[in-house]
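Why predict the complex rather than its parts? Because the way molecules touch one another can change local conformation, and only a joint prediction can capture that. The input here totals 271 residues.
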Amino acid sequence: MSDIDVSGRLKDKVAIVCGAGQTPGPTVGNGKAMALLFARAGASVICVDRDLERAEATVGAVREEGGDALALAADVSKPDDAQNIANVALETFGRIDVLVNNVGIGGGGDGPPKHITEEAFDRIMNVNLKAAMLVTKACLPIMETGGNGSIINISSLASIAGANMLAYEVSKAGMNRLTVSTALSMAKKGVRCNAILPGLMDTPMAIVGISERLGVEPDELRAQRAARVPMGHMGTGWDTAHAALFLASDEAKFITGVCLSVDGGQGARTG
Ligand code: NAD
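Output of the joint prediction:
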């Protein structure tokens, strides 16, 4: 739970959060935290997820707090679904101010070059990188017409400091460059684009998913991950969401093309 008062910081803005559902578990995911925080800040939030029930769960949580949100089912790696996200935003709200590309997957055949499967490489690149390009391409004309917009790509510290997850790392490194390239191409049009590189976060995707995969107890995994962070503890979905809120807001109106680590200092440690 984040109890920082953010009211009014995204007043009257329309935000799309792709991957706004979350892996079930006891803590909040990055996408769900962003949807909740953006709504608390005054935005209307389109919560997109491949799994409609997950998107609806986030919308329910937003509405419970008095916020405005709607759920939309879409597989962001499919061009028609990506275009439909932009169409629904335009038909429902007439504008898009903020787009978050938060969908990200890993596992399932990913690994070091010697072991990775071709199927895993293609699947992870499609869902993590190509999908972000597709949704960005679909939404940009609407954002450009509005003359103002903020795109936030949820990359990962693994894009610059990962190991043994070739497809995940390469897809997120591609996302960093997608961010810079989009930022430069849109700089004169009023649309900004930045990336967030979360480090080790205590989200269900990371803890529940990875502890099951490795056969390690969740609390043991938490302790192992915390020990790797200079600040001595993991981050949460709220840490990602607060960074995203800043980049989404007009407070960041002169910031574009930045890849911002949210990692407790992990990326700063070299050697
Ligand atoms: P999550 O898995 O809980 O939520 C992601 C949501 O995306 C899920 O609800 C899932 O159903 C949805 N999704 C998956 N494929 C989709 C598709 N093709 N189309 C539409 N929706 C799809 O994850 P999260 O905690 O919200 O984290 C999300 C992002 O943060 C990912 O990009 C991940 O790589 C990044 N990240 C997380 C950590 C961490 O430690 N949790 C660290 C670094 C980066």
